[in-house]
Every structure is written in structure tokens, then in C-alpha cells.
Request: fold
Amino acid sequence: MRSSLVFHAPEPQAGGPQPSPEVMEEMQKLMPDYADALYSAGVFVIDVESCDAALAWAEKFPGTNYGVLEVRAAAVSYIDGRWEQP
Reply:
């Protein structure tokens, strides 16, 4: 099952909640490890066994205390030169 992970956060000028400098620093420290692990599973669109597995990746995202990470099933993927549907 291919799933897209989409992060939504308010723009700074929109007046929404903003992370404190400490939270932002912690998120920046955690992001490289998360990105490296995600890269080994598939960047931006991950190929996982189930919706629960996609949600597990979303739960690991360091920025969820600042915004929302949306998980969506990918309807069609372009893999190895051809279009595939799950």
C-alpha cells in the first residue's frame, strides 16, 4: 500500500500556534534521523503493508506538535517506468 505523508502547519504570519524555540530546536535535531529512516522506506510516498503502518510512520514525525501530518492512500504510482494502481 502506497501512502503519501503531507505535513500541514500554519504560516507564521497567519497567527496560528507556533513552536517555541526549544520545540523547534528539538524538531530540527530529530528530523535528519526521521528523514533517513523514511528514505529507506520510500521518500514522500511510502510503500507499506497497511494503513496502520503508514500511521505508524506519521506518529514518528517530529513536527506533529506544531502542525498536522496527513496520511492519504496513493491511488496511482509511477514505478519503474509504468503506472500502477494498488
Summary: The chain has a mean pLDDT of 76.
